[in-house]
Design brief:
The complex is a heterodimer of chains A (about 110) and B (about 160). Chain A is globular. Chain A has a four-stranded antiparallel β-sheet with strand order 1-4-2-3. Chain A starts with 8 loop residues before the first helix and ends in a 10-residue tail after the last helix. By secondary structure, chain A is of the alpha+beta class. Chain B has a single domain, classed as Mannitol-specific EII, Chain A. In chain B, a hairpin with a 2-residue loop joins strand 1 and strand 2. The radius of gyration of chain B is 14 Å and the shape is globular.
Chain lengths: ~110, ~160
Amino acid sequence: MATALYRNPAMTQETISCEVVVGMQHGLHARPADLLAREARKWRSRIELVAKSQRVDGKSILEVLTLAAEAGTRLVVEATGPDAREAVEAIGGLFERNFNEQTSAG
Amino acid sequence: MKFSDFVAVDSLHSNVEADTKEGVIREMAQSLVDAGKIAASELESIVKAIMKREDLGSTGIGRGVAVPHTKHPSVHHLVGTVAVSHSGVNFESLDGEPVQLFFLLVSPPDRPGDHLRALENISRQLRDESFCKLLKAAKSPADIQHLLEEADGHGVVS
C-alpha cells in the first residue's frame, strides 16, 4: 500500500506559472493574503509569488504580506510539484474573482 | 515604511490586562485616545469597526501575532500602536495559537497604500524570530520602543 505514495519525482516536478493582476481596490491586504495562503497550503507543490523585485512563499501569509501589492500590481504565480497545474489554476481563480472583494475599477 | 512612521510611542503597552479579543482591542484603542492620536468620541465607533473586520476573518496571522485594523474617517493619517500580552489571548488565530503581540492600525479610508506598507513592514520584521521573541519578552513600553527603533534601523529605507 505504501508504494502507491511514492512516485518518480522526475515525472512529477512540473513547474507551471501564470500572470495575475491585483484587482482589489485595497490591494493584497490581510484578508486576501490569508485566503491565498490557505488555498496554497491545500496543494503539495511549492507555490511562490513573484513580484518585480521579490519572490515569496505563497503558503505563508507573512511572506505574502511583504509584497505590499497594491491594486494594479502584476504578479506571477509559480508552482512546482505534482499538482502544480491545479494549484496555479486555483490561485489564478482567486485573483480572477478578486478574492470576492470590491474591484479597483472606477 | 518604518514603525516610527505610524506607531505612537506614547501608546505602547507591554502588559495587556485584557484576556479577550475585544478587551485587547479596546485597551489598545484607549491607549491611542490617551496618546491623543484618536478622538475619545470616536473610540466606540473604532472598536466596533475593528471587531467587524475581525468577523470577516481573524487578523491573528500566526506566530503569536495579530494585526487588528480598520479604516476610519476620523483619522487623517495612519496611526498604530503595539501591545504585548505575556499570558497570550485567544484571538481565533489562523494557526489556533494564542496571541502575544498585537499591532493595531487605524487608517484613513482613502490611503490603502499606507495600510499595505505598514502591513508589509510588520510582516517583514516578524519573519525575524529573534525580533518576535524579544518583543514578546518586553517588560516596559521603553523595551518595545527600543526594539522597534532597532528594527527600523536595520530595515531597508524605501
